[in-house]
């Protein structure tokens, strides 16, 4: 099957809503196992207390084994998430949005997680490439010089042919290097890093361990984590309303930097506030995390060619994962002054 004409209107191609459903399911699969492990953190604390080297119930060998498996999930997540966002960055912004919404609906446990991830592999390999709108965008990216979609095109039954327009206009295949893309979009990259560095420095560790006085008992941490996830999901859908979508680069940076006021807010609320204020703050943390993530990821690729959008999506995911790593590393700072 030849390349689809670039002059075609993607909004008229069949399969848009089917592609959105598949993207939502793939978003689920991306973080199913990772979020399952994150959500049952208290289980690991019970199984492996801090004195595991001496009298821990789980044993040092089992602990190291789980750390290794968790690391393998991290490597797999980085590959899948980077590949997916890069792939969707040169398609409709709605695909990224529903994909990231799907990443929030993944708070179940391991057996279901493993089955669902296998299902997502099959969907991505055999269903997603055959949707007309996906063929269109991959064909368009290939016509602009992308070398990373040839296998994807072949999976959908499309085989790239020489583009006559490219021979007449050599600039058609010119693209910015990854380094140039990074420098031109450093603000977006840092935005992604800062969003997740702040969020993961608070959620879920601080919310599980240092939430102040309350009357909900053992349910309190679960309520906070549930509220975070619910409002994070809501935040990812808000940009669907165009008048509420923030696209200004300066506006996004200011909003993201302003979120760091949540650090003293959480500290003083845990020390002096009641559970109502903590639930409110946690909800706001989730709302802004989801909203700003979608705004950045859907705004950054605009104005670039398909191959550039693909590479930019990979760059943004790299900084997102770097922010997650920084956040979980900084999480221990909340323990200062508590016997450490």
UniProtKB/TrEMBL annotation:
User: GO terms for CC?
Assistant: plasma membrane
Q: GO molecular function terms here?
A: nucleoside transmembrane transporter activity
Alphabetic keyword roster: Membrane, Transmembrane, Transmembrane helix, Transport
UniProt membrane topology term = Multi-pass membrane protein
- Where does this protein reside within or beyond the cell? Membrane
Question: Any stretches that span the bilayer, and where are they?
Answer: 17-37, 58-75, 95-128, 188-207, 219-239, 251-270, 276-300, 312-335
Q: Which family does it belong to?
A: Belongs to the major facilitator superfamily. Phosphate:H(+) symporter (TC 2.A.1.9) family. Belongs to the SLC29A/ENT transporter (TC 2.A.57) family.
Q: Can you name this protein?
A: Equilibrative nucleotide transporter 3-like
